[in-house]
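Now for my pick.
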Amino acid sequence: MTVRVAVVGAGRWGRQHARIFSGRSDCELVAIAARTPSSAAERAAEYRTAPYTDLDAMLKETRPDLVTVCLPNEEHFEPTLALIDAGANLLVEKPLVFDLAEADELLRRAEDRGIFFGINFNHRYAEPVVRAQRAIQDGVLGELVFLTWRFGGEANYGDSPHANLIETQCHGFDMLEHLGGPIRSIAAQMTRKTYGAYSTVALALGFENDAVGTILGSYDSSYAYPETHLVEVNGTGGRLTIHDTVRRLTLSRAGDETTSVWEAGYFNDEARSFHGTFDRHVDHIITALQTGAPPPIPATAGRRALQLAQTAIASFERGSRVNVEEFA
């Protein structure tokens, strides 16, 4: 079965959507939609497909099996809702939305329509993350005690004062729960000293398994810095670190002064590529579509990340620790 795919969005990351689906032998890129005729035409010409600005016309004329949505972060709700109501199977970019009521509306309508509704938390497919999760599941680290996420770069300016937390550190929420299990409570500090938004956040986390954790996320840093992204997981039997998502994994055992290191080999360009994490996710998405399975990362994961973000916001505003279930 060849999967017919339409891409909604012609921006920088939208190009990655077009690149992947146009290059797969099991997919046909049938359309690219954008907000302006010129941007739609330019990107569609680049990938030899049809341009659209009208979603209804795109769906009617191209009949895609899957629509991917990659639009500006704070403009996801209305187009996603329209596509759900039209019955389109969807892969959306993070964040799902910025408002929990909107997230719940999207999920409810998608469930009512019985559509395929996935979200692209592509960090899960980085080779160091895949290996880290396997080590944790195999008990190499023993009982988990603490987990840390640090990630920061230049600001992506938007209307929301919590853009950094919701649209970027959602990867941190998803990753720490992916590796360490559900987060139970959050205590937050935030600063808006640079340009008016809460551009740097520091969060203390409590997990359901009684581990603790931290997230330090910033729009006041630079992606040019080395080690701009670091994940650390410590257990009673060992410790692992993930460096710059795809660059390196280290694994140490308690009491042993030697450390095992994974780095992509000379010819292993696929594993060292951040963009390649999305290719890996798409492999699983296409298999799920072709076999009638649910999405490998369902859109509910986007709602969960937003729930955690809203818990952090409430904690900061109240000046106290807040339980995550308050926003269930």
